[in-house]
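[Discussion] Sanity-checking designs against the backbone

I'm trying to build intuition for which residues belong where. Below is a structure token string of 755 positions. I'd appreciate it if someone posts a full sequence so I can compare it with mine line by line.
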């Protein structure tokens, strides 16, 4: 491939020299520093800083816009050293240019940049010096609401990187709808749509390089350290997405998988394959996977390419997990258990959950260090939070000892995990050590403190300790936190002395969310067990499951039920999260996922982009001045309008974001509560009644204004009453008395349900 690129570059040089008499009017001069400057152009230019530790790089370029700068002969111009292993080159008065870097005869991949100043380090672009990243711009994630997308199924911004999965034909996914369709460019183009709904954080499915027959979702990693090229475009890398989101005051939540990789190994833990391709479309065939010469797979299975698919699969598992007992997996990168997983039992923490999800040996300190160091690089890029996939399949002691502490130095960086608990009660089927709340606590018993072994030889002891830890907490535990609860109507400082600094998805609420009332009541009964449930991420359905009553299909209880659910999520404790398309009941009742047994279009993971073509001009979160095309129609749907007002209300009232709550001062209601947040000079209090009336007592006297309607009440005896209202409607009376952060009146525009 590199020889081809070099030959192409030389050919382009010759072609340009031959036609230079035609281009002379628009050609570039070269200043005394060897920097290209276009004559007579008026653009702002492209400045490039390249990080290199192995020599002085040169830069080669072609096809600049708006005029074509004459190319130097290969290998291009020598870049200017600027210290700290950075080298600089400036293209004045161009708006776009293609380039590559050459160091000691070795070429980088072909790259493209548009107007601006850019840094390129470790095969990633930044719009700032990555060594100067600070944490000050990250804020408490409870201030946000989260919009969750499967990146490949959201919006297609670049048809050039559309590509089938190897198994697309089994699912009957047509050429018009390849599994890899949406991309980072599409997300960047639709940030304004997400912001117009009012969301300020976007949870995206895993970005790392995948390998597998049906890997469009990103959960079958092949290389943790690189971003999958099928997401990116020349002008839309992962870094570009992060930067674009931040420029709009939005956050990126990156889905990460530490528990497993796909079954093609992992580039650093168990290297077996490289992907070789000339175009992205070549990745649609498994023939792109080339056995690494001299690798353990090549040496042990020299006829691998001639084996049938089943035999190849077994060969890969043998190298990864030593299934034949011939001494493979000598680095102990993977757990060796091969008999699958029985949920609710210890084996779920070291068995492989699927054929294409092979369990990493997270108790091996070498593995743990590689994973954490690699994912810290994504935090350094500016990612704001991680959603940790399959968290319960890693032991809590392991996470608390070797994983979570590595991220604690990043201020306001948040990790929340998926502790899958398809159970109606908050203690899951396997007991406390199998339950969501359990993963919010640090190790406080002396038996599990400071006993992690940091050397490779300690992996076996660590593994034994992890199993003993699971057993030790499989019975009853005693957690009784008041961190989410008010004292009467008074806020108190939460006690985080036993918190591990992470949170979870509230799976118990999720499983009971067929009705808002069921989810609310189960939350009241579980909150003492979490260290602080105000950090729980709360959703109704996802790319995996819906609530128990409709668990295999996208939520189907109807629009009014959705409105009521949203009312609860946006005002009760926790961080609200919405799966893409739910704002229009997209694919309501469709089977969420059956792999290749159904087409993606027939599933709850269908392509959403056709609903959001067109443009929208946002003026704030949940507000916009104009919209056209299908996106205008979508933004005007009842639930979309509902979300716009909910997001505006929640953003205006700190008590709804970070406040503790109480139901003890509320009567005559099924879903009503008081929330209050008092910290850093802010005192915010709100009384919330959902789908019914309520009476609140013990309140501070003063004026209370309803954020939904603008109605006001003057409380003189500590009592505020809300008359009965219809299902999906709500009242949010905000205390505007002296000393409180109040509101000026109605927030947002009423719709079908909030009125």
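Best answer:
Here's mine. Compare freely.
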């Amino acid at each position: 491939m590199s020889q081809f690129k070099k030959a192409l570059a030389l050919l382009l040089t010759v072609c340009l020299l031959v036609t230079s008499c035609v281009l002379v009017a628009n050609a570039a001069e070269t200043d005394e520093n060897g920097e290209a400057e276009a004559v007579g152009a008026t653009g702002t230019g492209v400045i490039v800083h390249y990080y290199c530790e192995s020599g002085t790089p040169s830069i080669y370029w072609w096809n600049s816009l708006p005029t074509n700068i004459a190319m130097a002969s290969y290998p291009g111009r020598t870049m200017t050293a600027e210290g700290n292993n950075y080298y600089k080159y400036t293209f004045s008065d161009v708006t776009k240019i293609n380039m590559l870097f050459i160091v000691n005869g070795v070429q980088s991949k072909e790259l493209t940049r548009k107007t601006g100043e850019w840094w390129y380090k470790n095969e990633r672009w930044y719009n700032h010096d990555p060594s100067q990243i600070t944490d000050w711009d990250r804020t408490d994630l409870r201030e946000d609401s989260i919009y969750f997308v499967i990146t490949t199924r959201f919006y297609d911004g670049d048809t050039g990187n559309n590509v089938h999965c190897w198994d697309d034909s089994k699912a009957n996914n047509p050429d018009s709808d390849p599994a890899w369709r949406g991309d980072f460019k599409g997300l960047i183009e639709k940030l304004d749509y997400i912001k117009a709904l009012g969301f300020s954080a976007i949870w995206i499915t895993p970005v790392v390089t995948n390998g597998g027959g049906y890997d469009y979702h990103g959960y079958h990693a092949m290389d943790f350290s690189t971003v999958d090229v099928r997401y990116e475009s020349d002008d839309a890398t992962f870094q570009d997405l992060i930067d674009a989101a931040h420029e709009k005051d939005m956050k990126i939540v990156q889905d990460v998988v530490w528990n497993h990789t796909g079954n093609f190994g992992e580039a650093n833990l168990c290297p077996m394959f490289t992907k070789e391709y000339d175009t992205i479309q070549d990745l649609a065939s498994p023939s792109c996977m080339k056995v690494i010469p001299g690798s353990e797979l090549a040496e042990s299975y020299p006829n691998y390419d001639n084996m049938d698919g089943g035999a190849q699969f077994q060969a890969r598992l043998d190298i990864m997990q030593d299934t034949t007992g011939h001494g493979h997996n000598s680095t102990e990168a993977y757990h060796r258990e091969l008999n699958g997983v029985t949920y609710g039992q210890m084996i779920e923490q070291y068995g492989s959950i699927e054929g294409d999800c092979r369990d990493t040996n997270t108790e091996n300190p070498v593995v743990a260090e590689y994973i954490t160091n690699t994912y810290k690089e994504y935090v350094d890029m500016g990612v704001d939070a991680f959603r940790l996939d399959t968290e319960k399949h890693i032991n809590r002691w392991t996470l608390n000892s070797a994983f979570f502490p590595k991220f604690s130095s990043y201020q306001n960086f948040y990790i929340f995990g998926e502790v899958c608990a398809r159970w109606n009660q908050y203690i899951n089927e396997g007991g406390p050590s199998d339950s969501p709340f359990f993963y919010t606590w640090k190790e406080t018993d002396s038996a599990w403190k400071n006993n992690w072994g940091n050397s490779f030889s300690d992996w076996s002891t660590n593994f034994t300790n992890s199993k003993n830890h699971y057993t030790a907490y499989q019975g009853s535990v005693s957690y009784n936190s008041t961190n989410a609860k008010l004292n009467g109507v008074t806020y108190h400082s939460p006690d985080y002395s036993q918190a591990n600094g992470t949170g979870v998805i509230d799976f118990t609420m999720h499983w009971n969310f067929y009705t808002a009332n069921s989810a609310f009541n189960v939350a009241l009964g579980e909150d003492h067990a979490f260290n602080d449930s105000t950090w729980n991420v709360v959703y109704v359905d996802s790319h995996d499951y819906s609530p128990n009553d409709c668990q295999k299909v996208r939520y189907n209880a109807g629009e009014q039920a959705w409105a009521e659910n949203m009312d609860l999520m946006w005002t009760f404790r926790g961080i609200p999260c919405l799966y893409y398309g739910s704002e229009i009941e997209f694919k309501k009742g469709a089977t969420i996922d059956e792999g290749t047994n159904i087409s993606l279009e027939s599933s709850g993971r269908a392509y959403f982009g056709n609903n959001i073509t067109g443009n929208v001009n946002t003026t704030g979160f949940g507000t916009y001045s104009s919209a056209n095309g299908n996106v205008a129609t979508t933004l005007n749907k009842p639930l979309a309008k509902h979300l716009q007002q909910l997001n505006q209300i929640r953003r205006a009232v700190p008590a709804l974001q970070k406040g503790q709550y109480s139901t003890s001062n509320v009567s005559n209601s099924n879903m009503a509560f008081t929330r209050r947040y008092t910290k850093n000079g802010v005192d915010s209090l709100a009384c919330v009644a959902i789908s019914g009336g309520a009476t609140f007592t013990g309140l501070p006297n003063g004026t209370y204004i309803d954020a939904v309607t603008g109605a006001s009440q003057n409380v003189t005896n500590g009592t505020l009453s809300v008359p009965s209202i219809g299902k999906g409607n709500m009242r949010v009376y905000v205390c505007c008395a002296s000393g409180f952060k109040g509101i000026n009146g109605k927030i947002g525009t009423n719709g079908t349900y909030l009125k």
